[in-house]
Amino acid sequence: MNISWLKRGVLLAVLAFASLAVVACSDDDDSASASTANGDSHEHADTLQTVKDRGVLKCGISGSLPGFSQLEADGSYTGFDADYCRAVAAAVFGDSSKVEFVETTGANRFETLASGEVDVLIRNTTWTLSRDSDLKQSFAAPTFYDGQGMMVKADSPFQTLEDMDGATICVNQGTTTELNLASQFLERGLTYTALTFETTDLLQEAFLAGRCDGWTTDKSGLASRRGVYPEGPDALRILAVTMSKEPLGPLTRHGDDEWFDIVAWVTFGTFQAEELGVSSANVDAQIANPDSVAVALMLGVGYDGGDVTDMGLAVGPQFMQAVLKQVGNYGEIYEKNITPLGLEREGSLNALWTNGGLIYSPPIR
Question: For the chain, where do the domains classified as CATH 3.40.190.10 start and end?
Answer without folding.
Answer: 32-145+248-281+319-365, 148-244
